């Protein structure tokens, strides 16, 4: 399948052209979307399939700490947990990444010491995204220079909601360019929409298309810093968007729900959404991630329950 955006070349030539395209996308049937997400969430996963799903979910976690009180010691401990989530069982998969603020990238990189765990860094004045473009570019460049493998940027929701779609597109393009290192390699770019602030499913669909057209490697629901974060319905809508985008361009884009996914049951519901909507091509940590912190603990406890027949004690897993 050819991988090209040629068919959309005229869409981003002007704000009016982009507006016409985005408002020409099919409207979202909110009732139907939520009903399908709810129905898929009732699927029952048992025994062997559940064990596979738990290990897959662990391998898809961006283990995250994004607090003002983060210290080098906390980031080192989180990195050790990402590499070896269960010290009593070395068959437990590593997580996909550790996600930190830009000033903690070097600390995480050193702590991981070459392990097959990525360092993701938030950028662009996370979580609000309210800063001038030079500040956002410098924020990104600093994280990439410190060794970040992935950048999780936030869009300016104010600009998007005011209808300044081309400005939103150009911001993502500029950050994508800032992810490129002098040697030509690049950090993968995840674009955070903060779906809880976009108000409507139609806006989430439009933001998804802006992100994909601008070169996002992943589209991501949320920062985890607002009241409404990842939900099955908004994640389903974004999965449908990446499916449709690949069908039209041949380009595959990842999806990352973040915030509020805390239990094994929650994680498996999202994996069912992936399997039933976009299929096995997205069932790897290269194309699907969970932005989470406490989720890993519950997955580890459920994993032990499957292998031993009993739940672990309260000190079996670390409390993040």
In short:
By secondary structure, the chain is of the alpha/beta class. The chain has helices at 15-23, 30-40, 47-59, 72-83, 105-112, 133-145, 157-161, 165-178, 201-213, 232-249, 264-277, 295-308; strands spanning 61-64, 97-100, 118-123, 150-154, 188-192, 218-220, 254-256, 290-292. The protein has twelve helices and eight strands.
How does this model look, in words?
The protein is an alpha/beta fold. Helix content is 45%, strand content 10%. It has twelve helices and eight strands. It has helices at 15-23, 30-40, 47-59, 72-83, 105-112, 133-145, 157-161, 165-178, 201-213, 232-249, 264-277, 295-308; strands at residues 61-64, 97-100, 118-123, 150-154, 188-192, 218-220, 254-256, 290-292. Helix 10 (232-249) links the parallel strand 6 and strand 7 (254-256). The termini are far apart.
Structure characteristics:
single chain; eight-stranded parallel beta sheet; globular; about 10% strand; about 325 residues; alpha/beta; 12 helices
Estimated share of beta-strand residues: 5-15%
Which of globular, elongated, flat, extended, rod-shaped describes the shape? globular
Order of helices and strands: HHHEHEHEHEHHEHEHEHEH
What's the helical proportion of residues? 40-55%
Low-confidence segments: none
How are the strands of the biggest sheet laid out side by side? 7-6-5-4-3-2-1-8
Broad structural category: alpha/beta
- How far do the termini sit from each other? 44 Å
Radius of gyration: 19 Å
Count of alpha/pi helices: 12
Mean pLDDT score, rounded?
Answer: 94
Strand count, sense and barrel status of the largest sheet are: 8 strands, parallel
Tell how many strands the DSSP assignment holds: 8
